[in-house]
Sequence to fold (724 residues):
Amino acid sequence: MRVAFVRITANEKREGYNTSVWSVPVAGGETPHQLTKGDHDSTPRWSPDGKFLLFLRATEKDGKPDRPQLSILPMAGGDSFSFTDLPKGASNPVWAPDGKTIAFTSDTNAEDLAKQEKKKRKEEELKKAVSESSPSATAATKSSEKATATPKGEPDAAAKKAEAEAEHESDIHVITRAVYREDNEGYLDPKRPSHIWIVTAPRTADEKVQPKQLTSGRFDEGNIVWSKDGTQIYFTSLRVDEPYYELPKTELYWINPNGGNATKLNSIDMGIDALSLSPDGKRIAFVAATTQPVNSYTQPDLWVVDLSPNAKPRNLTATFDFDVGDGVFGDSAAPRAAGANIPLWTADGRSLIEVYGKEGKTILASFDVESGAETDLTHGNQAVLRFRASADGSKIAYTVSTPTRINDLFAMERSSADPRQLTQINDELFSKLNLTEPEEISYQSFDGKRIQAWVQKPPAFNPAKKYPLILDIHGGPHAAYGYIFEHEFQWMAAKGYVVLYPNPRGSTTYGQDFGNVIQYHYPGDDYKDLMAGVDDLVHRGYIDDKKLGVTGGSGGGLLTNWVVGQTNRFAAAVSQRDIASWEDWWYSADLTLFQPNWFKAPPFDGEQEFKTRSPLTYIKNVKTPMMFILGEADYRTPPGAGGEEMFRALKFRKIPTVMVRFPNESHELSRSGQPWHRVERLQNIVGWFDHWLMGIPKPEYEVALEQEVPIRKGNVPGKQPTPR
Fold:
């Protein structure tokens, strides 16, 4: 028995990522073996009999990955081959139980197919015309001229000419919906909903198959699950044109794979991302969060529902006060082909396997289907990122990340829960680096709440010395740091900084109340939690309180902006992918706040609340030199509602400030941006702190390169008055 997995590497130009499918025996004892040779192969899926490996392959077009297509690798030998050619590609493939058919999703519509067919005909006509006019098509003359072959490049030239002569397609966006673009994905196209398609699984490259669209209409469909006998396909959808006017909801449907209309089975008042069918085929399990009351944060739970009309879902973890299906996050998870977890049923149908987040860890656990009782399957200071099980559920494979391991593949027998490591992907590299484990600390905040945090110290740390400190604030705000690899913190520590990364109130993995307590008060008391952490470290004696820096991204960028408007204790700040004005963000972000999750009313009905909680309101207090790290394609926290505003205001006030803009980068810059950009981001963050905390000249941050702004002298800790 083998595990198929995706390995991700930066490409040669460091402008993107390559993905390839590898395998390793579940029993271990062998080095991983590369199965596919494409640059963009992902999403491996074993056939039910294990004789074929289905995966997605994207080829290069104009230097970038094109739409992925379904591909198969025969495990008995032979090359892999692609067998779909849909204009908008194929995604989320799922084998039928008998292994003869594959269901998948695609955004391709009839217009796309017609254009593709027209383009192909045009190419054939041009190739024929080129062939007929070439010397090879001319009959031998009386002088017995030799025929010459058609030049090799002419078919390619014909294809390019056909593309150039194709009908012009407008690139404007006529927008009628409040949600019209998605960060890291681009503009949404309501004309191309994601539908379910079906195709016969070919066994050889010579076997030509034609995919068939199974569902239709103007709404997206997904989460494909085959019934045990293969006679039905279950899927989710929401047939509401503008769902942002309502609380989250999911509709469950089934359809005959041979065609016909879909039948609605249930409507569930929660957003659902993945379905898992029970061994007896009568129930599905899923992870979802309740929608009532309307919270800023609601813990996800593990649910089971019968596959009968309008059955009521049953919450297995209602009394389990941790985050099911969620956990801690880091900056080095696989940036492409990351996959997703679904709850896994045991063969007897009595238990479900899923991860949960608890106090800075992500733990793989078993949940009893009747009682909800939880049993940990993994242990230790680590995060389980992805997991799968064998068909009979007896063997579990999973990836693990720790503060000194990006991630590696492990396996266990469910009966023994004794893990064995299957890969050592980065051991050679890490053997050359001096990575250190962080120290876990906890401290008491102003109201008695205990705050968990970690301290990443420089190699060869000496507690008798004084070190500069960087406070690094996570975003979300409902997220959590913890025992997971953080390249950023290791980099900063290697440069001589102590890094403090806490989980203030609002963070996940500490229970529902701790996570939701910041509703309608963000930023607010979380700022006090952060300052209490800095105080705690300063009191330990090894921090130079004149060399304090603060940074964070997204919600952490918002809090960085907030911090410098409340105190002058920090000598420098770097705000990343931030928010400065809640009002401007409300109008421009890729998501809506039409429900009272974070604010009780829209800005035109609650102007004062938006201003009170916006860092830009306190811009006159800011004296801290600031850098802003911005992605120019960031639709989640658009620069115009964040760093651009702060930068212009600080320039007006003649406070030292720099804006570093990253072309074509989304909100995912730090996690899945271009490799070079991710490196340059870290170089600029530490460069700013090097200048203002360490006194290192950085002429690139000066208006006049021949002049160097002197290092800022002593920063006296003190709280700014709140403007009225």
Remarks:
- DSSP finds twelve helices and 40 strands in the chain.
- The first helix runs from residue 110 to 133.
